[in-house]
Write a structure and sequence with these properties.
- The protein has about 140 residues and is an alpha+beta fold.
- The protein has a single domain, classed as 3-Layer(aba) Sandwich (Aminopeptidase).
- About 30% of the residues lie in helices and about 35% in strands.
- It has a seven-stranded mixed beta sheet.
- It is globular, with a radius of gyration of 14 Å.
Length: about 140
């Protein structure tokens, strides 16, 4: 696995996992280009993007984490997890938030593995499709 600086075209080439497919209609190329100017990275295997993740600073000391993953096996997930964890451990932003679809148990598990704690169990109607999300935060 190779980790590259994120480019908007990576999102176009990344085949989203089933649990995130509902987001594909909401994430535009323009939004992807905006993420290129933030601390954002893409995991690539054999030239194919398998995951993209990063943070979007909101103000000094606060950022929002984001991630898009393809359907990857456990071996590739371990590499992605290590890369994301290493990035988070080294970014020294006091508060990083992330939201997780309430009906996506694997994402809840990953949030906890990355050192996030749940702050809000259910934010009703939060997702672009009207679904509910939980709020997690990682505070130094």
């Amino acid at each position: 696995m190779e980790v590259l600086d994120f480019k908007a075209e990576h999102l176009q080439r990344l085949k989203l996992q089933n649990a995130q497919l509902y987001l594909s209609g909401w994430v535009t190329l323009e939004q992807g280009r905006a993420l290129e100017n933030q601390p954002s990275y893409t995991a690539v295997v054999d030239g194919i993007p398998i995951a993209a993740a990063g943070v979007v600073p909101q103000w000094q000391g606060r950022a929002i984490a984001w991630a898009f993953l393809s359907e990857i096996g456990p071996r590739q997930f371990v590499g992605v997890h290590r890369a994301v964890k290493s990035f988070l451990d080294g970014c020294f932003i006091k508060r990083i938030e992330m939201t997780v679809n309430c009906d996506f148990p694997e994402a809840h598990r990953w949030a906890k593995m990355l050192g996030f704690s749940m702050e809000a169990e259910r934010m009703v109607g939060y997702a672009p499709d009207g679904g509910d999300c939980a709020l997690y935060a990682r505070v130094l």
